[in-house]
Amino acid sequence: MGERVASFIQQRVIPYEQTLEAGGPAARVARRRLQHDAKHAGLWALPLPTELGGQGLTLSQYAHLAEVEGASDHGPAALGSAPLLDVLMLARHATEAVRERYLRRISAGELRICFAMTEPDTPGTDPTLTATRATADTSGTWTVHGRKWFITGAGEADLVTVLARTRGGAPEADGLSLLLVPTTAPGFRVVRELSVLGTGGQWEIALDGVTVPSDHVIGPPGRALGIAGERLRLGRVLRCLRWLGQAQRAFDLMCRRARSRTQASGPLADRQLVQQLVFDALLAIRTTRPLVYEAVTRLAAGDDARTETGLAKVAAARMLQQVADAAIQVHGAAGLGPDTVLPGLFRAGRAARLLDGPDELHIAAVARRALRDHAATPTPRTAPPPP
């Protein structure tokens, strides 16, 4: 299966990347064609539930395929695994009416959905400060006012899950709810596309009196943080797997360039400084991958994976930026231009250090947890005696 997925990404998705990046009607046509081809090839929706048209792979079974898919930013959408977080969230927590109305169409790629949590004037690291508010009338219908930004895919989404305060005030943890908002609802507005280090794909939206039916609340009202946390833990691990795939792609490009580029004194591959870049990049990939898969294992087992996820997220983000930077260095000026994917991979690596929580948040959380665990174990942990 891994070889088939890798072949599809290399032969079908990567040739369409520039068209998909440009957006617009041509991108939509290309995406539909790729999704049709993935279904025909038996590669569609590998980790989605079988009852919704997916292939039902567990996280442990899907992990190495997520890494292969992630070599291209467009791989998950082309192969139908992109809505995994939304499908699982709705399947576990949505009302029966929402599940019946939307889930199968989302899984089939007929509807696009995104998740709106962060806001322009509120620290993204503290959702209890969410300013977006929703109030219910006597019939149970919710009216939402607020603004959200840095939402992946909001420009073409049919549905947006919005975090809003439905009771109480900041910084109360209770009182936050998730509401599923159709983008056709009156008062919903796409404000602008946000440029991230020169490229698009993130959006800002406004909700000016958008009304949401009572059955479109995801989970119990006021209990959004538990659902969002469940989603974020899996989302971080999936991002790490895809960053590994992108780093491997950058590494392969670097090695190909080092072997093929010849100067008067010989090929770049013979230069010790180039060899150092190759070694350091390979070391970064090889030392990060076990951290990511340890997080996968603990998460798949239902264990507490907060420390493992934090370590993996920080390591994978740094690793992607390092490997992409090294590949650019070996390519020289060609690595800065539009003829390789390296500028995009470097942007992804830099953005990775902020996505799903900045590095500093995870570093502090993991360190505090490690110190608490150490304090709870008064007996020094010594190394086992040598054999």
Automatic annotation (TrEMBL):
Keyword field: FAD, Flavoprotein, Oxidoreductase
Cofactor(s) recorded in Swiss-Prot or TrEMBL: FAD
Coiled-coil stretches noted in the UniProt entry, renumbered to this chain: none
Entries under SUPFAM superfamilies matching the protein: Acyl-CoA dehydrogenase C-terminal domain-like (SSF47203), Acyl-CoA dehydrogenase NM domain-like (SSF56645)
Protein family according to the UniProt entry: Belongs to the acyl-CoA dehydrogenase family.
Subunit field text: Homodimer.
Name of this protein: Acyl-CoA dehydrogenase family protein
